[in-house]
Amino acid sequence: MEIYRDISAIKHPFIRAHVTLGNFDGVHLGHQKLFEHVVTRARQDQGTSIAVTFDPHPLKVLSPKGIRLISTTEQKIELIERAGIDVLVIIPFNPEVAVTTAEEFVDQVLLERLGMCDLVVGYDYAMGKGRQGDTAFLEKRGLEKGFSVLVVPAHYEQGNLVSSSRIRELVAQGKMRDVRRLLGRYYQIRGDVQWGRQRGGKLLGFPTANLNLSEEDLCPKRGVYVTQVIYDGRQYGGVSNIGYNPTFGDTGLVAETHIFEFNADIYGRPLKINLLRHLRGEITFDSIDALAAQIRRDIQVAQEVLAQERQRRLIGYQKGATS
Scanning 27, 144, 209, 298, which has its CA 20 to 30 A from the CA of 242? Predict the structure, then answer.
């Protein structure tokens, strides 16, 4: 996948450009439907599938409260590439871009710069200053300028509307199985392993890998989670505590993960953590022994959950192989 982070870097229009545009936060199942349509239509036309997005998210610039994002730009790029898109255009969003009218964006960016012949958007998409470029505007502009427009309807999973805002609510509530249904994958946090207070191994007998979290980012419900840990291309089981360590009176928000059957020095190294299930909230324990005993119980439950997940995936694979 080619990536452009500046419109001016695109020197020539693309061949039969089929375009979708949006913020794509989370790249959930609804977004994936857009990408499926764009990729299919481009291939049928022997053209180029293009996704256009913005960084930072427009609400980070336009709204005083900002927005807590489901995915980082790095994750978004990985997921869009996985969808089979040929070209990703990431437009730096700033106050100047914010005042661009829908007409200017369509004419100057989509048509002149990209060479768009076909546009795919979600049912609720709107673009340009004041969000005046809604789907009715785009369909009318398409008739005037000679490009086709496909408006993709809302996508539902088990009767639930798939949307970024709903996923944020579910993450904050710790409902990770529901999050997975709407994302089509596990919710993931990632970062570089930080030096902690060395209590997990020395005092409790359960060494942990620590990732610092920001209060300004989307943060799951505090507590203990069953997790899958991805390090150096390999996957491990684990349990993670997201919170403040009330037993020790800590104040910084951190994700502490005990990785099963793992023994390596990974300080400063990147780690990805998939959150499978919220087990319990944070508890203040009367003693270190009581905390250690609870961790042992958490690990036992987590191993059972991970075994069930492996079995579920195996059955799914077998069904797919024989269908």
Answer: 27
Return all residues near 250 (Cβ < 8 A) that are at least 6 apart.
Answer: 197, 244
CA distance 4 to 85: 13
Residue 194: DSSP 8-state: B
- Residue 64: per-residue pLDDT: 75
CA 263 to chain centre: 29
- Please state, in angstroms and rounded to a whole number, the distance separating the CA atoms of residues 183 and 27: 7
DSSP secondary structure string for all residues of 247-314: TTT--S-EEEEEETT-----TT-EEEEEEEEEEE-----SSHHHHHHHHHHHHHHHHHHHHHHHHHHH
The Cα–Cα gap between 9 and 3 comes to 10
Q: Indicate the burial class of 19 (C-beta count within 10 angstroms; 0-12, 13-18, 19 or more).
A: buried
Identified catalytic residue from 81, 144, 256, 282:
256
pTM score above 0.85: yes
Place of tokens 């987590």: 302
CA distance 2 to 247: 49
Mode of pairing for the β-strands spanning 116-122 and 156-157: unpaired
Asked whether the predicted pLDDT for residue 268 surpasses 80, the reply is yes
SS3 for 137? helix
Please give the Cα distance from 110 to 128 (Å, whole number).
12
Q: Is 106 exposed, middle or buried (0-12, 13-18, 19+ CB in 10 A)?
A: buried
Active site residue 139: no
Q: Please give the mean pLDDT across all residues of the chain.
A: 91
Q: Which residues of 277-292 are buried (b: 16+ CB within 10 A; e: fewer)?
A: bbbeeeeeeeeeeebe
Confidence at residue 195, expressed as pLDDT on a 0 to 100 scale:
80
3-state class (DSSP) for residue 152: strand
